[in-house]
Specification:
Chain lengths: ~200, ~575
């Protein structure tokens, strides 16, 4: 029995060192050497080095000159992520969807049937960085008019930032909201005065 | 919509094709044959065995094998329990995470030691980097390897002829860890980092958003954990929302790699059995039987999720892309439904969409996957469950045609059937009694909504949340209807106990069964033998799985998901 206990203890120790330590160090080394940007979280930095966010993490946009991401169950808190966990028949859930729907139709000046469901439902992690192209198109008119630029220029940016499904069929076409908004500011100039308040 | 089915079909076919190769590789590893990776991996195996003090030639009977399994698991439990309980003062804690409380530690460590990975905490706020590495990720390797080792020993028992020894637990455990899981985890880990999963020892980063607000972004040693969580049918994520979080699952490519990782070893295990007992046809029969349950479930779930939520359709919203609450744009409804079924028929339990927000019947599929708990199943363990069903099907078929039931030339008698029944009946017992107790507590508490605050959703869906929690614990799955407020002493202790019993009863009883079968002489098959490697037997097995595995759960299915579905229409 003593032999049995000793083997259990020693196995636990050696495997902890090997897997908790060694395995992590190998992947960390490969990551740093080959994929340094991804390893640190795909952060986006301005020219002066300040961090704007991560291209993989949704951030909150409320101003009319920007495209808005999908609703978040955790108000875009990237330090405590999560979904709403609303069941499909929950009255609170349907009320929240209805409120978002009212807000979107009013803000974009569209009818209910034009709103893709992605814009009124919260994502699983509350951090979905993407919207479908139809949801970007929905917002293009507002963004273009707020910025006082022809809608074609905004549409061209949406088009340039639409990622197709991988290999043509894996996953869905999508637009990265933060990258699109950065591109808006870069090519059309940042909006100085806060419009529409 | 068509492309979603193409993506689902491609993922499944690719996984099946590669499982053939891995099944052959695992057969070589566990029978001590040479493989291409030996020059790199064999030294690791030798080192571990030498430090542990194990003689690679030592053989164990089923009792010694079980004792080694339990003792090693007990020390893993104790060591990791200590780590999370004092993580505040340990190194690698850049975000200043506090120690885990006692009932939550009990639940968490029992959960990860049993390969369940039910999580009543949220990773980014509940665990330090040290705990993620040395407690969680460590357990995700060795507990997966424990399941594989037990399965290999049981297969040896089934194949044996007057055999008393089933192998050496520590040799099997080390081989599974160092020569199966480690190389695969490194491969998938690199793919994940390439796609954007972080791997950094630096703490959370503060960003200033385009609109000038501050955003704190949690990150850390994510990629190593995500890769083994998928491969080891563990499922416990680095962040609270698991693989819905863009850091855990950044792109459709990472999603493909992770979906592949869930099913690859459970699928390969079936082929390994075929090689080890020398009957490829038997492996084909079992594999096709599993597919005959899995594929209809996937198709149905995809159709449900792609069909959308009727209550939201009634509001007039464009739901052409399916029900998107709790789902990510980059995956869409189809690949989310595929994952939901795959992660629950295997005992993985990771998610790439929130199961609580699935459509009622879409959410019934994960429940069915866990009730069956043997379609591909957890690494090793699910296949053990399947072997128990094979024994039961052999018995049923033997009774029907009036012959002595035989499997691989050995008589299945009262002792074997008792052990099989024990393993089989524990599962519904734990789920149904557990759920009944929870309902009783809820029903007898005054104003339970505020006093207990367990249920995020009212009515039938709230019942499903409690049912799902015990189902997930008993199936060693770990996914959840996460609307359940589960970090309470009641849920921590009850599900912790269910997880422990539901892990070790279904491992030890089949080991005893394999020990009993191994000792019997194998008589050559004659024209009168019941052939287990025939299509007829496959159909019998399928019927036994569906009838025995599901009928007991029909009443709770009606009370929960089916009632909600009917109310929603």
């Amino acid at each position: 029995m003593f032999k049995e206990l000793k083997r259990g203890i020693l196995f636990t120790i050696v495997m902890m060192v090997l897997l908790g330590g060694g395995y992590h160090v190998v992947l960390w080394t490969i990551g740093r050497a080959v994929f340094p940007s991804q390893s640190e979280g795909s952060l986006i930095r301005r020219a002066d080095g300040t961090i704007v966010g991560s291209r993989l993490i949704a951030q909150k946009f409320t101003r009319p000159e920007y495209f808005q991401p999908r609703p978040s169950g955790v108000d875009y808190n990237a330090a405590a992520t999560g979904g709403t966990n609303y069941g499909p028949s929950n009255a609170d859930h349907l009320k929240a969807v209805q409120e978002r729907l009212d807000a979107v139709t009013k803000q974009e000046g569209v009818t209910v049937g034009q709103v893709p469901s992605e814009m009124v439902t919260a994502s699983g992690g509350g951090m979905d960085p993407h919207v479908p192209p139809s949801a970007a198109e929905l917002q293009a008119t507002r963004v273009a008019s707020t910025r006082g630029v022809p809608i074609e220029r905004v549409r061209a940016l949406i088009h340039a930032h639409t990622e197709p499904p991988a290999l043509g069929f894996l996953g869905r076409a999508r637009v990265n909201v933060l990258e699109l908004n950065l591109a808006l500011d870069e090519t059309l100039g940042a909006v100085k005065a806060v419009a529409g308040r | 919509m068509g492309t979603e089915y193409v993506a689902v079909g491609f993922t499944i076919l690719f996984t099946i094709a590669t499982s053939l190769l891995l099944g052959r590789y695992m057969f070589k590893v566990f029978t001590g044959q040479r493989t291409l990776l030996d020059p790199v991996l064999f030294p690791i195996e030798r080192l571990v065995l030498r430090v542990t003090g194990v003689n690679p030639n030592e053989q164990q009977d089923w009792k010694q094998y079980s004792v080694s399994l339990l003792v090693s698991n007990i020390f893993m439990w104790l060591a990791t329990f200590a780590i999370v309980s004092i993580q505040k003062v340990l190194p690698l804690n850049p975000d200043g995470i506090a120690n885990m409380g006692p009932t939550l530690s009990f639940n968490t460590i029992s959960s990860f030691t049993t390969n369940t990975n039910l999580q009543h905490y949220s990773g980014e706020t509940g665990l330090s980097y040290f705990s993620q590495m040395f407690a969680i990720t460590f357990l995700q390797f060795v507990t997966a390897a424990t399941g594989v080792a037990a399965c290999i020993a049981i297969i040896r028992g089934l194949a044996g002829n007057r055999l008393t020894q089933l192998g050496n637990f520590y040799v099997d455990l080390t081989r599974a860890t160092a020569r199966v899981f480690l190389p695969l985890a490194l491969l998938v880990g690199v793919i994940l980092i390439w796609q954007g999963t972080p791997m950094t020892f630096e703490g959370a980063v503060k960003a200033t958003t385009l609109e000038g607000q501050e955003q704190t972004i949690a990150r850390g040693v994510v990629a190593p954990e995500v890769s083994i969580k998928q491969l080891g049918t563990n499922g416990g994520g680095y962040f609270g929302p698991n693989s819905t979080h863009p850091y855990e699952n950044p792109t459709p490519i990472s999603n493909f790699a992770e979906t592949w990782s869930i099913a690859i070893i459970p699928m390969a295990m079936v082929w390994t059995l075929g090689y080890m007992v020398g009957r490829r046809r038997l492996a084909v029969v079992i594999f096709v039987t599993m597919l005959a349950v899995y594929l209809p479930m996937v198709t149905f779930a995809v159709a449900q999720e792609a069909g959308g939520n009727p209550a939201i359709a009634a509001l007039g919203v464009d739901q052409s892309t399916g029900s998107m609450e709790g789902k990510e744009v980059r995956f869409g409804a189809g690949l989310s439904a595929l994952w939901a079924v795959t992660t629950t028929v295997t005992s993985n339990g990771s998610v790439n969409a929130m199961h609580d927000s699935l459509t009622p019947l879409g959410g019934l599929m994960p429940l069915i996957g866990m009730w069956l708990n043997n379609i591909f199943g957890g690494v090793g363990v699910g296949f053990i469950n399947m072997l128990i069903f094979v024994i039961v099907a052999v018995f049923v078929a033997g009774m029907m045609i009036g012959r002595t039931p035989e499997f691989l030339g050995k008589k299945v008698e009262a002792k074997e059937m008792k052990l099989a029944s024990l393993a089989l009946l524990w599962h519904p017992l734990a789920i149904l009694v557990g759920t009944a107790i929870a309902c009783y507590v809820w029903a007898t508490t005054a104003d339970p909504g505020t006093a207990l605050a367990w249920l995020k959703n009212p009515g039938a869906h709230g019942f499903s949340e409690m049912l799902y929690e015990f189902t997930s614990s008993a199936a060693n799955n770990g996914s959840g209807f996460e609307g359940l407020g589960d970090n309470t002493p009641f849920w921590n202790m009850s599900t912790g106990l269910v997880m422990l019993l539901s892990r070790y009863i279904p491992i030890i009883a089949p080991l005893a069964l394999a020990g009993a079968l191994a000792a019997k002489p194998a008589s050559p098959e004659t024209a009168g033998s019941l052939r287990a490697d025939s299509a007829t037997f496959g159909f019998t097995l399928w019927a036994v799985i569906v009838i025995l595995g599901l009928l007991m759960f029909m009443p709770v299915a009606v009370l929960g998901p089916i009632a909600e579905h009917l109310a929603l229409r």
